[in-house]
Amino acid sequence: YVLVTPNETRRKQLQQIAKKELDDLEQWKERHRPGPITLVPQRLGGNESEAQVRQNQQMILMQSKYQKKHKREEYIKAKKAAEEAEILKKKAIQREKAERLEVKKRQEEMQRREMFLEHQKYKTNELLNRLDVGLPKSDSCQIANPGPESIAWKRSHAYKQALREDENRRREEMKQEQQRKAELMEFKQKQEEEARTRAHQNEQRSCLHSLFIFYCTLRVNNAFLDRLQNKIQPDNINQPGYTG
After folding, report:
1. CA gap 244, 242 in Å, rounded
2. Could you tell me which of 51, 101, 16 has the C-alpha nearest to residue 242?
3. Which of 19, 102, 209, 224 is paired with 4 by a 20 to 30 Å CA distance?
């Protein structure tokens, strides 16, 4: 290893510089030391006595308790109302789905019935056309002795007339049924609208009732606090610490 001898002169210079800086710091602290604090004596506190302040604190505490209770009740009521509204909404959606499904089923049933009637009509006409082959085409030909062909033609004509009347009757019944369904749907919609209106009115009445109860409670509390203050205030006036 190599041993380097220290420079004594450089060390002394550094020590002197450090000592001078420390002395300057101490002198600066001594010059900038804060002096004594002098305050003008004054009276602290308000114009109310300690008993009145305690009373005001108690009143504020009681009012805060009632307010918290009222807020909690209002929150519970609002939560229940929201849950009931959500349930009613879901029920209405399910009811509408069921009604649409029922209408769809009825329409499909009517379509199948119409297709069956059309097919039956087509087959009946085809059969009657087969029976009409070989029969006289006009009524100008007078037949003295009607044969079996004229009787068959009359029967086929009467049968066609009965089919047309039956078809017209069925169409009229279908129209009446559609009209009854439309009236029933309109009646249901009116009932639902009236139920929603009644629910809204009941909700408004409950809100007004809650506000009325809160107002009455507040008036009773204020009257009680006024009486309490009137009882305590004369005693406070006779106390020596009361300043007016």
Report:
1. 6
2. 51
3. 19
